[in-house]
Amino acid sequence: MARFQALALIAGCLSTACTQATFEPVAAPSGTLAPLLVARRSGPELLALRSDAAQHTFVRASVGSTTFVELARGDAWFVNWADVPAAVEDEQGQLWFSWLVATGEQTYDYAAWLGRVDATGKRPVSLPEQRLHEDAGAGEHGFVSLAARPQAGIAIAWLDGRAYNEGKGATRVYVRFADNDGTLGPEWLVDDRACDCCPTSLTMVGTNALIAWRDRGPDERRDIALATVSPAGVVTPVQAHTSDGWIINGCPVNGAALASHGERVALVRYTEGGETGAARVLLATADTLNGPWHHRELVAAGAVGRVDVSSGPDGTLSVVWLERTAEAAQWRLARWSEFDARQAPVTQVELVTTTPSRASGRARVLDLGTEVLVAIPAPEGAQVLRWQP
Predict the structure, then answer these.
(1) Which residue from 349, 340, 200 is spatially nearest to 284, judged by alpha carbons?
(2) Residue 77 is assigned to a structural domain of this protein
(3) Taking CA 338 as the corner, what is the angle to CA 333 and CA 344, rounded to the nearest 5 degrees?
(4) Can you give the residue range of the structural domain that contains 313?
(5) DSSP 8-state secondary structure symbol assigned to residue 77
(6) Are residues 48 and 33 in contact, defined by beta-carbon separation less than 8 angstroms?
């Protein structure tokens, strides 16, 4: 079996300060697209899309197994390299998941659907498959993020094109909450002018949902914004000093990623703002949402982005991103022993060489403390790598 040897290459971390790590491939179902990794009580699972003739299916498999279980099936799904399914296990052991279904004649007319299976893997009759948003019209509804609420179901965030489709505004950001029994609460409008196709990210801080998205200013400034949303729908902006001043007349298809551990929060983002205009990846951390926020530049230039971040149960922090090389691109990982951007990562790894094109998709990381998993899209199917510190 091939082995991937770690190299300390990221700026700001000397080789003597970083541990070596070996990521090994583990078995995964073939022909899978848009992989996700979910921490479950029974062990980590890989969730992914599969295409079979004119049908699409959403499946899950225990990490290390090639046997998958079907979660949903359809013949009119919207499948896209950037707008991919989401999944999370709630505090009751239920697995919630989303996928996208075409709804109209235009390419970007699609709805986001929500499904759930209980801790035994059965689909509760109390929650048939349903749209996770109230709007039933055409237009974009996607880039979904899910997060488990403490003892009370999940939080849901998404980009919504209802106003744009009706000629009444731009793409919006919404958040709503779902109870353990599947009951969906009110939709809360977070932003009425957001970037059209940059992924959202969601985590919980106490009982509030913390969401990150790419804002869209009237001058086409496309910086990352953050806000908390309370169960009562109170939206409170969070000032994390992420105003990079990036002005671009178009969507960069590059969102941010959030992780939390208690009160501590980490945000990873891609930007081409700042004095140099270089393509960079930045990490920001804070012990509380009120700050102070600390910042570290992970890639000074040449980033492709497509970031993801995960927190381990003991407060470790793992980040993955795609970075250009002289001839191609590489998925890279950095890991910290705690939420503190002032410190250099203790581990840095070159994972897999690929291309900077959209065909490379989005990698996902899952930090379980005793092991770190990375799922990477590949033409023959998702590749899963494992490192046991």
Answers:
(1) 340
(2) no
(3) 55
(4) 1-25+256-389
(5) B
(6) yes
- List, for residues 75-92, the tens digit of each pLDDT value: 899 999 999 999 999 999
Look up residue 136 and give its two tokens: 């039933």
At 162 the three-state DSSP class reads helix
Asked if the structure places residue 270 within a domain, the reply is yes
Sheet holding 317-324, edge to edge: 303-311, 317-324, 329-336, 347-354
| Cis bond upstream, residue 292 (ω within 30) | yes
Any domain includes 376: yes
Q: Residue 186: inside a domain, yes or no?
A: no
- 124 pLDDT band, cuts 50/70/90, is low
Query: Shortest CA distance to 32 belongs to which of 3, 2, 65?
Result: 65
Other beta carbons less than 10 A from residue 229's beta carbon: 24
Task: Give the Cα separation of 72 and 123 in Å (integer).
Answer: 10
pTM of the predicted structure, to 2 decimals: 0.94
CA within 13 Å, CB half, 344: 15
Domain count, the chain: 1
Structure tokens that stand for 97 in this block: 């998941």
